[in-house]
Amino acid sequence: MKLRILLVGNGGREHALAWKLAQSDKVECIHVVPGNGGTAGVPKSKNITSVSPDDFAALVQHAKENSLNFLIPGPEAPLVAGITDYFAQHAPEIKVFGPSKAAAQMEGSKTFSKDFMERHNIPTAVYENFSDFDAASKYIETIDHDVVIKADGLAAGKGVILPTSKAEAHEALKSIMADKEFGSAGNSVVIEELLVGDEISILSLTDGTTILSLPPAQDHKRIGDGDTGPNTGGMGTYAPTPLVSKAQLEEIDRTVLQPTVDGMKAENMTFVGCLFTGLMLTKNGPKVLEYNVRFGDPETQSCLALLESDLAELMLACCDGSLASHTISLSSLSACTIVVAAGGYPGSYPKGTAMQVQASKADEGTFIFHAGTSLGEDGELMTSGGRVIAATATGKDLREAVDKAYKGVGLIEFEGMQYRKDIAGRALR
Predict the structure, then answer these.
(1) Each residue's pLDDT tens digit, 203-243
(2) CB 314: neighbour CB atoms within 10 A?
(3) What are the angstrom distances between the C-alpha of 106 and each of 109, 143, 254, 414?
(4) Whole-angstrom Cα distance, residue 233 to residue 220?
(5) pTM for this structure?
């Protein structure tokens, strides 16, 4: 079966997916809706800007008119909104790599996912869910451990607050639940104990029964060096992280990943797609921080640079329920991704800033993945988002990968650009 792909999204994750999928002999063409300045240049790919990524009916129509037979929703929003179910109903001949609306609640609702973990004895932080502001405020007064406060719904990776005092905890509750800083995403909150340790991310391809995982990655969420400043969608990643041992990875498979897909199957919401599990390696073992129901960004850029298997073939096997007959082949190299953001991000930032990117000068094993970029009328590249672009590099060890990735950042130039100087610093120390 030749795959004619409809890829929904416009981030660095989608550029990396298109780049990897285009390498497969199985893939004939990729239509990216809406795509960005990077996906526009991927072989076999073209950006489709005439169709809105939120308009499922228009996406179905475009897929049928262009004989597209394989849908990959990149970001979480369309999955949580039910794009998989919509295609199953209106275009059942098109395979979808992505979970159903029911299964996507694992990311779409933090209260739902915490209750799921409790039902299936999956290790996670002690927590309480609240939909009443006064009850949540009273609860804060009764506890004496440090907490994390999470908006229930989707908040673009920014709905998690780490207060350092009870006053700050009350302030966070007020901003989420009363002032609606994240809109309806803050109608409910999770208040959980603060876990301490190293944080890792695992991206797993699954057909709902079998799991094949990419190398464990570590993300850097804060905007500033030394993990300072506000949270972002992620400022850089590297993989595989040496902070997790082979024995710990086997424990995570046994106590977290397999019970998660088995539990979802048992609850009639079989998960097909990429399950992203964020974990804290605590002194009491690995514990789940969150689930995402799609490839992480910017973990994908680092992890796909290490994938030697045919990604299209693995995705097809997930959709066909035949993943058990496949293995995953991973490079022995290390990879690192450095995100370059617009000045002002994660606060307000300018768009439409002119950019120069000398991708053709990149060393072998160095890749430039676009995120918030777009092409002007004359094809000139400009910024269009907060996280603008990233340099990814592979190396024989982590040190080499990091050095090459920073050299890659040197090929990128635009006014106000900012990036962290300490990606992978903890692992290198």
Answers:
(1) 999 999 999 999 999 999 999 999 999 888 899 999 999 99
(2) 20
(3) 6, 27, 19, 37
(4) 9
(5) 0.94
Q: Is the pLDDT of residue 180 over 70?
A: yes
The residue type found at 122 is: I
Token duo for residue 232 = 């972002």
Question: CA-to-CA distance for 125 and 73, rounded, in angstroms?
Answer: 30
C-alpha to C-alpha distance for 357 and 350, rounded to whole angstroms? 18
Residues 6+ apart with CB under 8 A from 399: 428
Helices (H), 155-257: 166-173, 246-252
- Tokens standing for residue 284: 């009491």
Contact 366, 392 (CB under 8 A): yes
Report the alpha-carbon distance of residue 44 to residue 259 in Å, rounded.
Answer: 38
Q: Name the one residue in this structure whose structure tokens are 């990604």.
A: 311
Q: Rounded to the nearest 5°, which phi and psi values hold at 222? A: -75, 155
**Alpha-carbon distances of 265 from 135, 206, 209, rounded to whole Å:** 34, 12, 8
Cβ atoms of 94 and 7 within 8 Å: the answer is no
Q: How far apart (Å, rounded) are the C-alpha atoms in residues 282 and 105?
A: 26
Structure tokens at 393: 């590099």
Residues in contact with 138: Cβ distance below 8 Å, sequence separation at least 6, in sequence order: none
Tokens of 383: 């910024």
Residue 381 has φ and ψ, to the nearest 5°, of -85, 135
- Count of other CB atoms within 10 angstroms of residue 254: 10
- Cis bond before residue 286 (omega within 30° of 0): no
> Cα–Cα distance between 251 and 355 in angstroms, integer?
45
Sheet bearing 147-151, strands edge to edge: 127-130, 189-193, 147-151, 160-161
The rounded distance, in Å, linking the Cα atoms of 287 and 196 is 10
Tell me whether strands 228-231 and 222-224 are parallel, antiparallel or unpaired: antiparallel
Q: Strand, helix or coil at 110?
A: helix
Q: Which residue has the higher pLDDT, 194 or 208?
A: 208
CB atoms within 10 A of CB 397: 12
Residue 89 tokens, joined: 């109903």
